[in-house]
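WARN  no MSA supplied for this record, continuing single-sequence
INFO  ligand: 2-oxoglutaric acid
INFO  echoing inputs
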Amino acid sequence: MANEQSYVLETSMISNPVATTHANVQGHVQSDGAQAPLSDEQRGDLDRDGYLVLPGVIDPGWRAQLAERVDQLAALEGAAAGGEFTRESGTVRLSDLVNKGEVFDGVWTHPQTLAAVAHVLGRPFVLSSLNAREATVGGGHQALHADWGPRASDDEPYQVANALWLLDDLHADNGATRLIPGSHRRVGAPADHYADPAGPQPGEVLLLAPAGTVVVLNAHCWHGGTVNRAGARRRMLHAYYTACGNAQQLDQGEFLRHRTWARLSPTARELLGV
Ligand SMILES: O=C(O)CCC(=O)C(=O)O
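INFO  complex generated
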């Protein structure tokens, strides 16, 4: 897709300023500005299933830094955590992570993730929000939902995509995300198809994957968190993107701090829509 290719070329420019400052601790950043295209198989996964699993994106050193920063912020913010966007009982949520650590820069600007988002949306897009979510013991269950309103026809353009960054292993009993493969193409909302969208549904899959994996989700695909029965850690970042022209979940221009703006490349600022 021409749109996607040109976007991938542009996104290689985003990572370079990050690479020069973080080359030692963030070896994940492509310092040569190399493109990170998707294979035909990966595009096929996204088109058919509505999600793409990218294993081993987060190297162990970076994962540890991200996890440490998430814990630090949760401790610092306490009951206020998540307030810029939303709080959810039974979970710890953080919002506005763009402004809360340079360690997150490589998340929302990650070239292969952006290539997958470009494939889903097929037109220019911006970051809508960068959040963290962790289900705590006994909490985290959500009804199946899309991150956008119900589709009225199966040829409507997609508006949103979400990259789930796994900072801990996802097991069957620690609040893994569940989803219905292919549901991004369905017309209507989960409630139009299921008597109880909060209950188990035929064909649902649990995303079971090791820490370090990124799952790019066509966010029209019906999904939801599950309960963390075991209480094992399940920190996850949500890098959420939307097509240009839609309101951002967090108005990045309003929230952007000067010190964040100053370290970003022009292309990264463009990705924030500022
Ligand atoms: O964290 C997850 O597993 C999914 C969260 C989600 O879908 C949401 O908060 O809307």
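The first strand starts at residue 51 and ends at 54.
INFO  checksum written, moving to next record
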